[in-house]
Amino acid sequence: MDITLVQGDITAQTVDAIVNAANSSLMGGGGVDGAIHHKGGPEILEECRALRASRYGRGLPTGQAVATTAGRLSARWVIHTVGPVYSPVDDRSAALASCYRESLRVADSLGARSVAFPAISTGIFGWPLDDGARIALSTVRGLSTAVEDVRFVLFDEEAYGVFKAAL
Ligand code: ADP
């Protein structure tokens, strides 16, 4: 597996699957989630609604992942995963690691070979970037998967630099 770092907008990536840092409602939000729905179009939300009406009536639990179409994005699938909200008193790192592991498990089940990840939980959910980068990289490195190309897409120079140092 090749792990690469890219600075930029995840919605501009051409890959088999783009991972969305979603929230459990699957109904969209800010940050990566907002950008994915905005650029991917209404088909993604339609499939999310169907998931809420079937398998995930109470929402997608933290640490889990589920795929939908990628709509108009340059990808075949969006894999939605729900990161934990950072807490300084409660160690939620296992849930954050689970997001990366479960997303790659879903990618494997779909036959995806290239996957783009954002830095899950490091935006609105408040996870410190350096710790988020460490968890992301160590989790992905330790997995056995048929995905050949794992790309971390970091929105700004700071996040890119932190991931680069952690890599
Ligand atoms: P969370 O709720 O899991 O914290 P956010 O979407 O708020 O998710 O942020 C996750 C990370 O993604 C943050 O580091 C944020 O800067 C970054 N980010 C926001 N928009 C984009 C984008 N379009 N492409 C890539 N990364 C993005």
List the helices and strands and how they pair.
Blueprint: E1 2-7, E2 17-22, H1 31-40, H2 42-53, E3 65-69, E4 77-82, H3 93-110, E5 114-117, H4 129-141, E6 149-154, H5 157-166
Parallel strand pairs: 1-6, 2-4, 2-5, 5-6
Antiparallel strand pairs: 3-4
Helix pairs in contact: 3-4, 4-5
Residues 9-11, 21, 30-33, 35, 83, 118-125, 153, 155, 159 line the site of adenosine-5'-diphosphate.
Polypeptide structure, described:
This protein has 167 residues and is of the alpha/beta class. It has a single domain, classed as Leucine Aminopeptidase, subunit E, domain 1 (3-Layer(aba) Sandwich). The protein has five helices and six strands, in the order ββααββαβαβα. It has helices at residues 31-40, 42-53, 93-110, 129-141, 157-166; strands at residues 2-7, 17-22, 65-69, 77-82, 114-117, 149-154. The protein has a six-stranded mixed sheet, sandwiched between helices. Adenosine-5'-diphosphate is lined by residues 9-11, 21, 30-33, 35, 83, 118-125, 153, 155, 159.
